[in-house]
Structures are given as C-alpha cells and as structure tokens.
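hey can u check if this looks right to u? its 853 residues, i copy pasted from the old doc so theres a chance i mangled smth
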Amino acid sequence: MFTSQGHHPTSTNPLFLRGPWFKDRTGRTVTLRGVNLSGASKLPVGSASHQPEGFLHKDGTEVSFIGRPFPLEDADEHLGRLKHWGFNLLRFIVTWESIEHAGPGKYDYDFFEYLVKVFYKCKEYGFKCFIDPHQDVWSRFSGGSGAPLWTLYLAGLDPSCFAQTNAALVHNFYEDPENFPKMVWATNYNRLAAATMFTLFFAGSTFAPDCIINQMNVQDYLQTHYIKSFMALAEYITAQHGIEDDVVIGYDTLNEPSAGWIGLEDVSKIPHHQELKKDLTPTPLQAMILGQGFEQTVEWWVSTFFGPARRGSKSINPAGVTAWLTKEKRDEKDAKFGWQRSPIHPEAGKCIWAHHGVWDISTQKVLDPQYFLNDPATGEKYDFDTRSFLPFCRRYAQAIRTIHKAAIIFLEPPVNEIPPSLPPPHDDDDVAQFDITSRVVYAPHWYDGLTLLNKKWNFFNIDYLGVKRGRYPNYAAAIKIGEKAIKECFRYQLACIKEEGQSSIGQHPTLIGEIGIPYDLGNGKSYKSKGNYKDQIKAMDANMYALESNHLNFTLWNYCPDNSHKWGDRWNGEDLSLWSKDDLYRDPGRLSKSSSKSSLSSDPLNHKITESTVPSGNNGTTVESPSLTRRPSASDKLSPIHSGVAQLSSISSSHSNSSLTSSNQPLLPTSVVPKGGRLSFDQGGRAVIAFCRPFAQKVAGVPLELSFSLSNVTFKFSFRRTRTTGPRAGPNPLNSPAPRKINEPTEIYLPRLHFPCAEEYLKSLQGAEGASVQGNKEPACSVTVSAGHWKWNDDEQILYWWTDDEDKDDSHDNDVVYEITVVGKKWAGNSLSGSGQTGNAFWKAISQCCRVS
C-alpha cells in the first residue's frame, strides 16, 4: 500500500482515511457499524468460566480455540443474520492464549487456518474485520481472558492459590458459581495477579529490574512474545489471497489495557482513581501481604445507584498459602518452558515486590509507599502514557506493518481515560509506514456503567464521565432523571470521548470499540416473562441515540453464539449478547385470545415482544421511486434544487427491470436462509427493534445530521456534497486520497423491520392461515428527498439515492445540503394500521416464529 516500499494495492475494496472519516474507493464517506465477534472467543472450545473441571490441566497447553467464534459450518447462519441486521464491521476477538497457549514461540497454525476460512466467509457477506487482541484482567487464570497460563508462571505466580490469597477472584474457583457477584471480575485489575502482570508488561524493566529470564527483562520477554504472536497471525493472513485489506483491515493495540500499579501515590491506600470498589477491596500493600500468606482485614464494598459504598471490613486468612510458586514448582515450570532465571532474580516463593523494596516480609510494613510513582533509578515521576503505553503501541504498530503494510492501527487507551497526545502524522512514506500517527483510528470503549453494574434499567442515570472529568463534585450532583435527560447524558459522554480523541490523537476517525447493554436486567426477569424486553429496548435505544447523534462508528458488545439464559455469555456472569439460542428455541406460543392484550402498543418502547419477532420481507424486490412531484424547498438549508415526495411502496413496483438484484437471484446464498425462510433470521435476537436501525452506510459527501426516532419510526439524514476523496498515486495512497467528484449514490440501510413494503410484505405471508393481500394497497413507508431520485432494493434493504447533480459544476458544493426523511410504520393494534382481517392474519403468521405476550 505504501508505494515507496514496493508494495502495491491489491484490495478491490479498500478503506481510505481522510481526517475523521472513512472513505471508499469512490470517495464516499463510509460509516462502520458492527459487533464484537465474539465473547465466546475469550474461552477455548468446550469451556466456560463457571466450570472448574480441567481448568489448569497440563498448564493450559493443550486447549483449542478452533471453532471460536463458531463452527465453520454455522458461519452462514450467524454472518447472514448479522448482515441482515445491517452490520458491516466485525471486531474479531483473538486472544494471545488462542495463538501461543502451547508455550513460548509455539503457535497454533491450525487455528490460523480456521480463522482464514472464517475470514473468507466474512468476505462473502461484505464484512470488514479488524483483529482485537483481547484481554480482561490479563488472563483466564487471573479471572478474565487473554494471556496464556505460562505468562503467570513466568512472573513466578501460582494460579492454583489465587482463591486462598485473594490474588484474583476466578469464577472457575468460586464456591457458588451460579451466584458469582455481578461484574466483580473487573475488580481483579486491582488485585495482586493482574496488577502485577500489567506492571511487569508495561514497566518491568523500571520497577522489577531483577526479573530477568533468558537474559531478558520480564517486560521485554512478555511484550516480545505478545507482539510476535500477532505478527505470526498477520503473516498467515497476508499470505492468503484477497484477505488483507479486503477483509482484515487492521489491528487493535490491546483490549482495555491497564497501568497496573504504575503511578500509585501510596501503596498502603486504595487509589483515589479506583472507581470500581466491590466485594473484598484490599489496598495494594494488603494484596502483596495476602499473596505472601499473611492474614489481613480488608474493606468490604458494595455497588449502589450512587456509586460504591463501604459496608464494613472482613478478614482474609490464607493460612500460610502463598500466591507465588514454590521452588519445586517454579523449577518444574522453568524446565518445561525453557527458562533460565538470572542469579539476581527474586527467590521462589517470595513476593517480587518485597524483593524490590516495596515492603518488608518480616515486619509486613511498607518501605517505599511511592515506589510505583517515581522511577526508582532516577527519582523522577513516571508517566505511564509517554514511557509505557505509547512506546508499546509504536513497537506493536511497527511490527504489524512490517507484514501488513497498510494495516489500520486501532489505538485503544485505558478505559475512560483521556488518551495520550500524538504528534501530527508524517508525510514521508518511509516514516509513515511504521509510525503510530499514520492510518490510526481512535478506538475507546464506553458503557452505561450504572446499568451494567447493577443490571437494572432505571428512570434515572448518572453522568459518570462528567464526574470523572470534574464537571460535578460528586455522583449525586450528576444524576439525570427521565428518558430525555438520560439520552442527552449518554450523548454528552460520547461527545466528550470523541472530542478528547480529536484533541489528543488528532483528526482521525473515532470508533467505539465496545458499547452494549446487559440483557439479564432485573435478575433475568425477561426470561421469566415470555419475552418482555421493554427495558432492554429502552436501554439500547438510549445507547444508539448517543452513537447516532455523534456520527460515531462502533462495534456493539457482543454477538455470542453460545449464549444461554442461565449462564449468559458463559463468562463471569456477563449476558450482553444480541442473540441467544435460548430465545431461538423458545416455544413460539400463540397470540392471546384478547386482541387488546395481544396487540402491540403504537410505541415500540412499550411493547412486549421477544425481539426475534418482526419478519423479513419478500425476496429480491426492487422498488423504484415514481416520478417526483417537484416543490420548492421550505428550508434555507436545503438544496436550491426542489425536493420531492414519493411513497416507498407501490403495487406497480418493478421486479424485472432491476439492475441491482433479481428476484430469481437473491443477494444472499440459499444456504444462509435458515429453515422456515427469512422469518427465522430475527429469531433469537434480543431488542432487535432498538439496535437494527437505518443509517447511511455510504454518503456522497460529508454527513451532517442523522436521527432515528424509534417511537415515531422516522429516519432523518442530511449531508453536504464536497469534492472528496479517491485513490491516487504518491505517498500513502490509502491515507491521503486525492479530491475528486463523486458520481455514485448515497446508500442508506433501511431495515424491513422498521420499513416494510406493505404489499409485498403481506404477499410473502401467503400460505399462512387466513393470509390475504386483496384490497390492501396501503403503503408502509414514505420517502421525502430534497433533490434527486432513489431506488429501493428490498432484498439488500438498501435505498440508493442520487441527487441528480453529480455531473454539474461543483464550485458551490459546500453550500448545498441534501436531506432525506423516511417514515416507517408504527405497529398499532394487532394489524398493519387499519388492515383489518389481513392484519390479524399478518400477526398470526408472525406468531409462528416468535412469542407475543
């Protein structure tokens, strides 16, 4: 991709970066919406975090991730569903453990081969993917996911003793796995195991200089193996034809990195920046003392709607059990993995932080409370961003780009922290290829913490980021009451994140790498009430509103093929999957005898329906706009070209003259359509009505405003035409495309869920008992455009919109704004508004594949 390196573009469908926007080859602005695929990929095949059996078997060297995120034979079903829901991007979860579990330098090439087969499937459906080197609290063996077990042995830690010493709360070791505390796994970031590993990974050479293995400091050893693992994956991917850039567009740096204990002002106190305090909450010093086997009395905290609250203290007595490998065990691991520790390496069975002078084992007293605040060698304050995080990111990006020349680097800072500042990007090809400022995307995460931690949707929420940034003095002052206030609160927080990224990272695209909601709200009451997902719909709608209002690219967390109502995503009690097989196989039931009880409210936010409900439309229908009736623009913002109104549905819609698709040649392969036809695609989905929304996928200009009202089923979008981007020769062809005129249409995803073509929609139900379309010619949707003409492809669920001035002089493009409004159909009563007997048959047909209560 970088011509001076002798590498030429082979991608037929590359992504360009221009300022804060993604661009396609034609110069259109591309919006990326997708999912994380998948939470299941955190774990080896056949395992779950609540299962203790075989957890430490053979030091985790014989596990397999082949089949994560799903078996290859199931790819069409899952990818077809995600495509049907309008997604075009996959944040592809790959853990370090999945690559290098067998031992240092031993890569699972069979897993690579499986991944490439999945990527070829992704290509069939038009997905772009980027690799997420995923971790949570370092490793499965310290309560999360990510690094292989041998990395803990390398540091001298013994995971079999983490439970007794409180070094980590591990679901697999929890006495009552069904009642594992909500979201307590994240507190492991501040416990001994994870805090030690992140400190070593990012700054071992500074804070643990005596930890030398095979003549390398532990920091260099860990980072080298981490980076080489993903280099091996990148090398395997780029060796395949048509995957690099066409499918796999880049690499995340490291999921939700942590500074460990770096920067602590006092190890004897709970850090002031530690917002998450839950369950047993030791200070860093207490965590070290417990890890050495000594009893400690630690604070007990609980989560409340107004933040964490202390509820007393509890005693922990490891009874002499230590979290550090004994000499016998460590010698065994060293021999197995080929390690030779230097003579000055900390003694086996002893805390490495005591060895380095943080505390004294004999007195259990702190010796240097500010050990992690300043560089022990120089006494200067240690800055995590400039001395640890950015150097790691640069090293990682340089390594990846020696293989994947034009890889986009998705830069992900610690969660909820202001990102580090980057210098302006280089124009010189030789520098830009290996520089973190070139082809970079800011990829932070954001969650509605109140709902996530308490698993309850409330009439109020808290501006958490506002508190963290000093906008409010405390949580009570940041309370927002009512649906409108909550939505604006979410919108503000994401606007703040985007603005911080542009200020610090620069004018690069922003993509929210993780955002989502828990579906087991209220202790899973939706699973007991035959599919009442009202609260989940409201929560998801608020999240989506915040994303749309800020024109953000995003990947929702997450789509988990293994999800079940009992165990959620099968990882630490989380249940955030957009889809669940337990919703797929629920008894479809019958409509209530009382039409008033079985009806859907005209407000979708209040309806009671398993969100696998609204079926897809007909096969391969292309609806072209009739001749537009011109009228003057009523708004000064509109184009001087007159606007027009046209109905989306018409009985005379052409099926045979479409150049976009044919009714005899469906867009998706036949194998995609599950048994039961397209009605089955939405089955198993949860709150689909809230996350499956219209949006402009490709825009012939720069987006200005986008909104979708779920309650009014109204989509509005505007953009400004500009001379924009296309490929050119010269430095960084994928980074600095040349200005050119856009002749291609704007493409808008219009899901049939919200915008059905009534006539054809009902025709697709012929054969269902009582189904009839005679006399029902009511249009289901209407389209209003300020200029131009459009064509709707029902099978693709895409509306193509030409402004009809593509060939005109573009000297005034920046002054021309184009607008479109699409109004869908409210689900009122138990029919398609006023369709009478036909509507009853319509809902009866729907009830064959979903539950309505």
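The mean pLDDT is 83.
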